Amino acid sequence: MKQGIDENPVIVFDGDCVLCSASAQFVLRHDRAARFRLAALQTPAGAALASLYGIDPLDPQSIMLVRGGRALTDSDAVLAIGQGLGWPWKAVGALRIVPRPVRDLVYRFIARNRYRLFGWREGCFVPAPDHRGRIL
Q1: Which of 9, 52, 63, 100 is most buried (most C-beta within 10 Å)?
Q2: What is the pLDDT of residue 48?
Q3: Which of 39, 23, 19 is closest to 132 using CA atoms?
Q4: How many angstroms separate the CA atoms of 44 and 117, rounded?
């Protein structure tokens, strides 16, 4: 297991991306078990995790889910996050029937165009007080 990783999965996301930040807020609202923690790539913790698992924090191209010393990226990360949220979001796991190269092609198209399609934030979102302990 990689150093500094414990049993709580960590979602590493692009905090400058409107879509990514909205997705992080979605996870915080719907993760009733408070299972996931989050780290924006623009923070020291997020940048360190990204670097540890081979993602350039200065040129993020993927969301990353770190759990059990492993990192999932692209569509695998999205599906694992959905499944971790429980019902009804767990149903997203049915998309595993779509071959991973096809899922990743769609994911990467959106990731490459996320700033143009959804916009750019001037700074990371500020979580609600009851969620602050889940942000690294």
Answers
A1: 63
A2: 92
A3: 39
A4: 27
- Whose structure tokens read 């500094």? 4
For residue range 97-129, list pLDDT tens digits in order.
Answer: 999 999 999 989 988 888 787 777 676 666 666
Cα Rg for the chain, rounded, in angstroms?
A: 14
DSSP 2-35: -TT--SS-EEEE-TTBHHHHHHHHHHHHH-TT--
Q: Which two tokens stand for residue 14?
A: 């692009």
pTM of the complete model beyond 0.85? no
Tokens read off for 124: 């990371």
Alpha-carbon gap, residue 33 to 69, rounded angstroms: 21
